[in-house]
Amino acid sequence: MGSKVQAIRGMNDILPGQSSIWQYIENAVAEVVNSYGYHQIRFPIVEHTELFKRGVGETTDIVEKEMYTFDDRNGESLTLRPEGTASCVRAADQAGLLFNQIQRLWYVGPMFRYERPQKGRYRQFHQIGVESFGMATPDIDAELIILTARLWKKLGLLEHVELQLNTIGVAEARENFKASLVEYLTQYKDELDEDSQRRLETNPLRILDSKDSNTQKVLENAPSLDEYIDEESQAHFDRLQAILKANDVPYVINRKLVRGLDYYGKTVFEWVTTHLGAQATVCAGGRYDGLVGQLGGKATPAVGFAMGLERLVLLLETLNLVPDVAKASTDVFIVSMGDAAELASFKAAESIRETVPSLTVLRHCGGGNFKNQMKKADKSGARFTLIMGENEVEKNVCQVKDMTTGHQEECVLDNIAEYLLSFLN
Ligand code: ATP
Ligand code: MG
């Protein structure tokens, strides 16, 4: 016998005990995005490497060091998608869905980044992304944020997350700011952390994001981005805030919020929590009016966000917010003795499933004596156990045992679904 092959580090199995929490979150998201008129889009997990180089940006963490890139058998460079926005734009534009049109799209699925695995940070993780195209005005930025707030409310998370908001202006404003930031920081280059020193040349805005305390200290007296924001972006930002206020969505302005990806402009936002340690951001997004053009399409305004499902699962578990309905459970367990009762038990099980599809009905399979079958019924956690033997089959009935009280009574098989329905559901 050979040794067992293990999963890849940082790539997790979602086991049966966990998958119902995932379904609970995914169902909640699907319901919320549907209620805002968003349509699901599905695209491949693998794309040409160039898509992410151009879409995410050469100088981002993702492209510099996190991508799973490999050569196809014909020598073409392919990459496992590290995020969804570039693929979403590629797919929608390729299908002619973007130019001069309005689209509200969402997707869910695995993303891949070569990062150091730790709590809330994995190499295969899952995102739900929501992207809208063709709308340049701040009302759509607000709609997306209000949508996320509704989702938090639905999941019981609203008071456990904080909305951080910023505007990073148009490209020209950012360029002007970058120039003065670089000029200022260059004087203190030796005091910056290694990553920030490198970013001084590649992606200076990201230095604002640095977690290094020395770097943060140097930044205290650095020029501030808000002094460089253009009038149009400021008006956009003001209107966004007015709409959020009118909708009672609280937020804080974080002038250092810049986001790690190249494609953002104007609005950026994050929902953060204090309950997950360093992996504090559960949802992040913003406006990216330049991306469609950057990927070769006709200029199309766009705004969107992505949320990390692992972090949401962790958050719900940490806060004890996983409702019972999100835990898989058995409602009815059926035991039978003898061939005729076995056949009758199939019939009973199917008639219950037909009449009340929402119930989970477990028919005991694999034989065994009555006592053993009843033990399994106990263990299943079912509210009711149906017991069928030769006598019951002859009379066309079954015994129904209420597992919470131990009370047992006979029920005519033809009425079994209605009988159960009167207690369950
Ligand atoms: P971080 O600063 O935590 O690395 P990021 O800026 O790289 O996040 P985005 O690319 O904006 O993250 O992705 C959006 C969301 O996806 C994050 O807020 C987070 O919830 C989730 N996410 C990102 N990377 C990972 C990962 N490696 N493992 C689990 N979730 C992740
Ligand atoms: Mg990251």
Task: Kindly summarize this structure in a few lines.
The chain is α+β, with helices and mostly antiparallel strands. The protein folds into 2 domains: 16-170 and 230-318, Bira Bifunctional Protein, Domain 2 (BirA Bifunctional Protein, domain 2), CATH 3.30.930.10; 329-424, Rossmann fold, CATH 3.40.50.
SS-derived structural category = alpha+beta
Provide mean pLDDT, rounded: 94
Strand content: 15-25%
User: What gross morphology would you assign?
Assistant: elongated
* Low confidence ranges: none
Whole-Å distance between the termini? 49 Å
Please report the total strand number as a whole number.
16
CATH topology of the largest domain: BirA Bifunctional Protein, domain 2
CATH superfamily of the largest domain: Bira Bifunctional Protein, Domain 2
Overall domain count: 2
CATH class of the largest domain: Alpha Beta
Total count of helical runs of at least 4 residues: 15
CATH structural architecture of the largest domain: 2-Layer Sandwich
Bound molecules: adenosine-5'-triphosphate, magnesium ion
- Share of helix, binned: 25-40%
Order of strands, widest sheet: 1-5-6-11-10-9-7-8
Gyration radius, rounded: 28 Å
Q: What profile does the largest beta sheet have?
A: 8 strands, mixed
InterPro entries: aa-tRNA-synth_II, aa-tRNA-synth_II/BPL/LPL, Anticodon-bd, Anticodon-bd_dom_sf, His-tRNA-ligase, HisRS-like_core, HisRS/HisZ, HisRS_anticodon
Protein name: Histidine--tRNA ligase
Subcellular location: Cytoplasm
GO molecular function: ATP binding; histidine-tRNA ligase activity
